[in-house]
Amino acid sequence: MAAQIGAKAMRALGGLATHGSQCYSRRMFNITKHFEASYPVQYHSRSHGMREGLLFSSRDSFRVFLGFSQTLTELPQHGKKGSFLSPRCFNQESKSAEETAVEVDGAPLEGKDYKYIKAELVENGAVGVVLLNRPKVLNALSLAVMHEVIDAYKTFDSLSQVGAIVITGQGKAFAAGVDINELKEHNLVNAFVSQFIFKWSEVATIQKPIIAAVNGYALGGGCEVAMMSDIILVGEKAIFGQPEIKLAAIPGMGGTQRLIREVGKSRAMEMILTGKAFINAEEACQRGLASRLVPGTNQALLAEAITLARTISESSRPVVIMAKAAVNAAYELGLHEGVRKERDLFGAAFGLEDNKEGMSAFLEKRKPNFNHR
User: Fold this and answer.
1) pTM of the predicted protein model
2) How many angstroms separate the CA atoms of 123 and 20, rounded?
3) Where are the beta strands (DSSP E) in 72-151?
4) What highest taxon heads this organism's lineage (predicted)?
5) Hey, which bits of 16-125 come out as E strands?
6) Distance (Å, rounded) from C-alpha 181 to C-alpha 64?
7) What pLDDT score was predicted for residue 101?
8) What is the C-alpha end-to-end distance of the chain, expressed in Å?
9) Residue ranges of the chain with pLDDT lower than 50?
10) What pLDDT was estimated at residue 223?
11) Which 8-state DSSP code applies to residue 371?
12) What pLDDT is recorded for position 190?
C-alpha cells in the first residue's frame, strides 16, 4: 500500500480542494504517515482526472467502520453512473448544516438518560423517535449505542400509547458503520460471544412497526440496522453499502441474509464481495430496499417518517402488530407455513373489539374509534 501521497497526487488534491472552494478546503483532509495501513483509494478532480492516494476526512471519520476514507471518495454521484461523489455533499457552510441538522421537538422518555441517542415521544405520545446522536463520527455504532437503541425500542414497544417507532441519524449519516475501535480487539472467541452482534437480534422482538428515515450514509452496520426496520424512507443523499470486505470481515448483523432478500443475489454479492458497490436513494427505491424517496432536507425526511408512523398508529394497534408478524413470516417460513400463519392471525383479529368497531364504522360510514383491544 502507498505510504504517502506523492507530489503529483498532492497537486491533484490541491486542485480538488480549490474546485468549488466554498464546498470544502484542504483542512478537511488529514493525510499523514500515521495512517499508512489504510486503503489506497481513488478521488476525483475535474482538472486532474482520477488519481490513487490516501484520503481521510478526519481522524474521527477514520474510526468509523472501513475507515470511511474510501467511502467518502468512492460513492457514486446521484443519477450519474460511473461518476464520483460530488464535493457539494461535503459542504461545511451553514446551508449544509441547516440541511443535515435534525430536531425532534418531542417529550424525552422519562427516567432515561441516554448519552449517544435521543429518544422522544411525538404526536401526543403516539410515535416514538430514536435519533442516533454521534454526528462527529457519523453516528458510528458502538456497544453503548446498541444498548441505548435496544433499550429505547423496548421502552417504546411497552408503552400502550405508542403505535410506531422512527429511527434516524443526526447530521450527514444515518450510521456509517460500526465503531472500529471496539472491533479491532476482537479475536475468534469473543467475535462469537460478543453482545454486540447477538443483542441486535433483539430488534426482531419489537412488535410495533419501526420506520428508518435514512438520511445520508447507511454503511456496514448502519445498513444492517436500517434493514432491521420494517419500512425505510430515504432522503436524496441516502447511500447504502456493505464494505466490510475491505477490513477482511463480512457483515455480521444480518447483512448477508437480509440484503439478498431486498436487492437480489447478484447485486447483494457485488456489494458484499467488492465493498465498493453502493446503492443510492433512487436505486434503493427501484429495488425495493426503500419504500420511497422524500426530497428536501433531513428535517423534511424525519417529518414524513413521523407522519407515516402517526398514520400507522391510528389503526388498531393489536391488528398492526398482527399484520407486521404476518408479513415478517414471509422472510422466515415457506409459503405453506406462511399462509397458515397468516390464516391464524386473520382469525385472531376477529376476537378483538377493534375488529367489530372497524366493520361497524365502515357500514355506518364514519371514522372508527379504536380502543386498541
Assistant:
1) 0.74
2) 42
3) 107-108, 117-122, 127-132
4) Eukaryota
5) 41-45, 49-53, 107-108, 117-122
6) 8
7) 86
8) 63
9) 1-95
10) 96
11) -
12) 60
Would you state the pLDDT for residue 192?
A: 60
Nearest to 30 by CA among 2, 8, 53: 53
Query: For residue 51, which phi and psi values (nearest 5 degrees)?
Result: -135, 165
**What stretches of the chain show up as alpha helix (H) in DSSP?**
7-18, 59-63, 69-74, 94-100, 143-158, 180-183, 188-193, 195-200, 221-228, 255-263, 265-274, 281-287, 298-313, 317-332, 335-349, 353-363
Please give the grid coordinates belonging to residue 54.
490516501
Site of grid cell 429518544: 119
Instruction: Record the cell numbers describing residue 296, joined without a space.
Output: 428536501
| Cell numbers given for 203 | 430488534
Q: How far is CA 210 from CA 4, 34, 56, 164, in A?
A: 45, 41, 34, 6
Grid cell of 339 as nine digits: 399462509
Question: What gap in Å lies between CA 373 and CA 363, rounded to an integer?
Answer: 20
- Parallel/antiparallel/unpaired status of strands 217-219 and 173-175: parallel
Looking at residue 45, its amino acid is S
Q: What pLDDT does 126 receive?
A: 96
Give me the residue label for grid cell 443483542: 199
Residues β-bridged to residue 219: 241
